[in-house]
Amino acid sequence: MLSALRSFPAIGSQVAKNTAAFVGTAVSSQVRCLNVHEYQGKELLRKFDIRTQRGEAAKTPEEAFAIADKLKDELPEIVVKAQIHAGGRGKGTFSNGYEGGVKFATKPEEVQEIAKNMLGHNLVTKQTTSEGQLCSTLFVGESADILTEKYFAILLDRKHMGPVIVASPKGGVDIEAVAEEDPDAIITEAVNLKTGPTQEQLERIARKLEFKEENIEDAKVQMERLYNLFMQTDSTQVEINPLAECPQGVLSADAKLNFDDSASFRQKEIFEMRDFSQEDEREVTAAKFDLNYIGLDGNIGCLVNGAGLAMATMDIVQLYGGRPANFLDVGGGASETTVTEAFKILSSDPSVKAILVNIFGGIVRCDVIASGIIAAAKQVNLSLPLVVRLEGTNVETGMKLLQESGLKITTASDLDSAAQEAVKAL
After folding, report:
1. Residue that wins the pLDDT comparison between 20 and 32
2. Which of 103, 179, 327, 339 could pair with 294 as two cysteines, CB 3.0-4.6 Å apart?
């Protein structure tokens, strides 16, 4: 749900009636899931005996040259791929004007020159912000000789209460576009969580994906190993696009893997792969204090407890002419410390011109939250207009604390008036 906010409005999940919506939600709606780079994903694929391209990671032009030099006698062509957490790299543009985050070369010297143009620069794609993401690592490796391209993914789906395989014979392209334009080209197969995919299911999927007869058995093996990876690594998503037919067999040419953060305690090796440079610094800080935060492009900072109330608050702000600058859920166990950290995050955003606090005091008392707001505002020396709406346990005491704090805090008795006051303060 949280990641879907970046492309709001989010697509709803309907498996049977609207396959396009199902694919859109399934691919982009996991909550707080670790994302790894392509080269890291390939390392994991190899551990599960899943066929993929050879190659290594390079962090300097010299390392890129050395890897290419090792491969030059074995490979007629070498691919160089910028490693960022976003799609559309091949059609992206670097901050220095260099075009394309995926390049091909035949000589180590060419690879080194490509690396000089990519490393240390931000790559802007259709999936990044206008600032792009810093490219600090490259994948230098085998260029696959692809004959046909399929799409294959395994993900968790609430409606089926377990794993679902989503596949299509139309791979190597934007799967959401395929689902929207040709929903019949999308295959969905629910998987029994206890038994995994059956041989009959795997064969049915392989044939629907239009693999050549001589590759059917290999496709079944590769898909089964991908499912094993999904289950044994606590994945929330394993997306292979394309799952390709090549002269050497069925190959996972490009992989997007996500992992459940709740399993970090037993997947330590995988979670050590986390690249904080690819994440919003504010989101990283928020996660340390168990705050659910996602930065948006508005001007009113929102601090709310509960995801549903946070969404409603954002809607009301928009209704009255404002634009939410973030999604920030402090949770039911909000304390003075978490509220202070939340204020620090909100006030560090230069686009925020006013802050709206909307708290329902059910689990947490309103007077505790009010004390936290006062302490936080003083600690960060808050100069932005602050509007607070409290409701629930000890609301009268909480409101009195705010009004007698000596701080410039506008209080509101309901969400509508609170949102109007926040917009008025801009």
Report:
1. 32
2. 327
